[in-house]
Automatic annotation (TrEMBL):
It comes from the Bacteria. Its EC number is 2.7.1.49, 2.7.4.7. GO terms for molecular function: ATP binding; hydroxymethylpyrimidine kinase activity; phosphomethylpyrimidine kinase activity. Keywords: ATP-binding, Kinase, Nucleotide-binding, Thiamine biosynthesis, Transferase. GO terms for cellular component: cytosol. This is Bifunctional hydroxymethylpyrimidine kinase/phosphomethylpyrimidine kinase. Residues 14-264 form the Pyridoxamine kinase/Phosphomethylpyrimidine kinase domain. The gene is thiD. GO terms for biological process: thiamine biosynthetic process; thiamine diphosphate biosynthetic process. Pathway: Cofactor biosynthesis; thiamine diphosphate biosynthesis; 4-amino-2-methyl-5-diphosphomethylpyrimidine from 5-amino-1-(5-phospho-D-ribosyl)imidazole: step 3/3. Catalyzes the phosphorylation of hydroxymethylpyrimidine phosphate (HMP-P) to HMP-PP, and of HMP to HMP-P. It comes from Streptomyces kasugaensis.
């Protein structure tokens, strides 16, 4: 009997099923791994935005983590919405005792502009969480929040990666998907990301589809990287496979509710 690789997400719940824990578990299943979850916060959320958020007590997060790790064991971890300074610090401490790859998605604000991390938690993300990361996956807004570096074009991305690497992760994946459109075209032609450990540099390019139903993209990418790492990929191979998975899921993103629909894991 085959036991699949085990992957853990430490993240928030999206009641609409498009992002957070729900996107993470779907991604892990689609990539042939066993997904497990440590819930940090519950959001009341739909295609129009986040209508309420409640974080779990630190003891509940610690107990979930210990239950999973001490019995089942994990081969890779992904972190997402961590909400508060206390939760960021607790999760960083738990991860520091683990000897497996960790993908940190330093989630700050949702596409609708809802805060998923308190401004007071940014310092703990910089000094405690990012040093535990094998790969950190900030988008350009998160790069600016965490480092002050503003990326206006792809040429700025290496400077952003250096600033993130200075905070301690082994690899930085700078996601350029939010870069402004080429003024000559209605939609940008490519989504460009930069993966680097400071020496080895990989530029990843994928066609842009102009599909507005993109809810859950960041969660899905980070979870896909963690799933591939649990299966034994190197970081560059895991990120390339994850980008391919997200590109397919994005192309198939569908309408749900009156707002922004989710990426599709059933392709
Ligand atoms: N809700 C939760 C619980 C999340 O973790 C995230 C992103 O990490 C979001 C919402 C935001 O998703 P998006 O910005 O793709 O709409």
């Amino acid at each position: 009997m085959r036991t699949p690789p085990r992957v853990l997400t430490v993240a928030g719940s999206d009641s609409g099923g498009g992002a957070g824990i729900q996107a993470d578990l779907k991604t892990m299943l689609a990539l042939g791994t066993h997904g497990m979850s440590v819930l940090t916060a519950v959001t009341a959320q739909n295609s129009l935005g986040v209508h309420g958020a409640w974080e779990l007590p630190v003891e509940a997060v610690r107990a979930q983590f210990r239950s999973v790790v001490d019995d089942i064991g994990v081969q890779a971890v992904k972190t997402g919405m961590l909400s508060s300074p206390a939760l960021v610090t607790t999760v960083a401490e738990l991860l520091a005792g683990l000897r497996v790859p960790v993908v940190v998605d330093p989630v700050g604000v949702s596409k609708h502009g809802d805060a998923l991390l308190a401004a007071t938690a940014l310092d703990a993300v910089r000094t405690k969480l990012l040093p535990t990361a094998t790969v950190a996956t900030p988008n350009l807004d998160e790069v600016a929040q965490l480092t002050g570096v503003r990326v206006r074009e792809t040429a700025d991305m290496p400077r952003a990666a250096d600033a993130i690497l200075a905070l301690g992760p082994r690899w930085a994946l700078i996601k350029g998907g939010h870069l402004p459109a080429d003024p000559a075209r209605a939609v940008p032609v490519e989504a460009v990301d930069l993966l680097t450990d400071g020496t080895d540099e990989h530029w990843l390019r994928a066609p842009r589809h102009g599909n507005r139903h993109t809810h859950g993209t960041g969660c899905t990418l980070a979870s896909a990287i963690a799933a591939q790492l649990a299966k034994g990929d190197t970081v560059p191979r895991a990120v390339a496979a994850a980008k391919e998975y997200v590109t397919g899921a994005l192309a198939a993103g569908f309408r749900l509710g009156a707002g922004i629909g989710p990426v599709d894991h059933g392709w």
